[in-house]
Write a structure and sequence with these properties.
alpha+beta, Multidrug-efflux Transporter 1 Regulator Bmrr, Chain A, 2 domains, two-stranded antiparallel sheet, SOUL heme-binding protein
Length: about 300
C-alpha cells in the first residue's frame, strides 16, 4: 500500500483575514488618551509627565521661598545693625543683629555710660530658676520657655518674629501687676529671684496672644530714663555685680541725673549664643531720674 500523502502545511493554522488586512500581530490598539482641556487630548504618558513636572515646579517654588526667607533671616545676623554709636574700640567691635528692638533716644553721653529715654514696650517674662541670674541651666531653661511662647505656644498659635535684646533683671520683692486687655497669670518673685524677658514685636501692641505656659506673663514696661553701660564678652553674676557698683559710682558724680531709689539692675544681651565673645554687645542699665539740683 502506498504511504499517505504529506500534509499540505506543517505550521499552525492562522485565522482567516480579509484580503489586504495586515497580520494580527501587526495590529496594535490605539493609545489611551486623557482629556485635559476642552478640545485637547493627550496620551496617558504625557499627562503623567505633565503632572510630575507641575509637582516638581511647585516643590521648587516652595523651596525657593523657604530659601529666600532663610536668607533674609540669616542676613539679619550676617550684616549687623549699626544703630549704636561706638564710644570705644571695644564697642566698635560689637555687633548687633538687625532685629526689632526697644525704641530710645540718647539724652546724654559720658565716657563710662550714656543716658537714654526709652519708650514703653511690651515683654513676655518668666522667673528664672535658682538664685543665680546667669547660670547656664537656668538661663537656657528660661530662654526656651519664652522662645516657645514667641514661636507658637500661645492661645492663637501665633508665630512671632524674634526681637532683641533679651533682658535679665532682679525681681522686686513686692510682686508685680499686669496691665493687659486680656487676663494673664501673675506670680510674685522674691527679691533674690531673677527674671528673663523677651521684647514683643511692636505691631501687636497690647493685643498679644495669651501664653499657654502659666510661668510666662505679659507686661507693659512704661517709658523711663536709664543709664546704660555697654560691655562685651560672656555675662556672669560676679561681672554684673562689679559693673553695677561701677555704674552707680559714676552716676553719683552726675549733676543732672541720679539713680532712682527703687532702681534694680537690668542686663540686656543682644546676640545669639553662637556669637564670638568679643563681638557680643551686652548692656547694664539702672533707672534714673533728673536731679532736682541740676543747673
Amino acid at each position: 500500500m502506498a504511504p499517505p500523502p504529506p500534509p499540505l502545511c506543517s505550521a499552525s493554522p492562522r485565522p482567516l483575514r480579509a484580503p489586504g488586512q495586515p497580520p494580527r500581530d501587526d495590529v496594535r490598539p490605539p493609545p489611551r488618551t486623557v482629556v485635559v482641556a476642552a478640545g485637547t487630548r493627550v496620551s496617558g504618558a504625557e499627562a503623567r509627565a505633565s503632572l510630575v513636572l507641575a509637582l516638581a515646579s511647585q516643590a521648587l517654588s516652595a523651596s525657593q521661598r523657604r530659601f529666600a526667607d532663610l536668607a533674609v533671616e540669616s542676613a539679619k545676623y550676617a550684616f549687623p545693625s549699626r544703630r549704636f554709636e561706638p564710644r570705644t574700640l571695644e564697642e566698635a567691635l560689637m555687633s548687633v543683629p538687625d532685629l526689632e528692638t526697644v525704641p530710645f533716644r540718647v539724652l546724654k553721653r559720658e565716657a563710662e555710660y550714656e543716658i537714654r529715654e526709652v519708650e514703653s514696650y511690651f515683654v513676655a517674662e518668666t522667673t528664672m530658676p535658682g538664685r543665680s541670674g546667669f547660670d547656664f541651666n537656668g538661663s537656657s531653661q528660661s530662654f526656651n520657655v519664652l522662645a516657645s511662647y514667641l514661636f507658637g505656644k500661645n492661645t492663637a498659635s501665633e508665630q512671632m518674629e524674634m526681637t532683641t535684646p533679651v533682658f535679665t533683671r532682679k525681681g522686686e520683692s513686692n510682686g508685680e501687676t499686669m496691665d493687659m486687655t486680656t487676663p494673664v497669670i501673675t506670680k510674685s518673685a522674691g527679691k533674690n529671684k531673677w527674671k528673663m524677658s523677651f521684647v514683643m514685636p511692636a505691631k501687636y501692641g497690647s493685643n498679644l496672644p495669651r501664653p499657654k505656659d502659666p510661668s510666662v506673663t505679659i507686661k507693659e514696661v512704661p517709658s523711663k530714663i536709664v543709664a546704660v553701660a555697654a560691655f562685651s564678652g560672656l555675662v556672669t553674676d560676679d561681672d554684673i555685680n562689679m559693673r553695677e557698683s561701677k555704674l552707680r559710682e559714676s552716676l553719683h558724680k552726675d549733676t543732672e541725673f541720679r539713680v532712682k531709689d527703687d532702681s534694680v539692675v537690668e542686663v540686656a544681651q543682644y546676640n545669639p549664643p553662637f556669637t564670638l565673645p568679643f563681638t557680643r554687645r551686652n548692656e547694664i542699665a539702672l533707672e534714673v531720674e533728673r536731679n532736682d539740683i541740676a543747673l
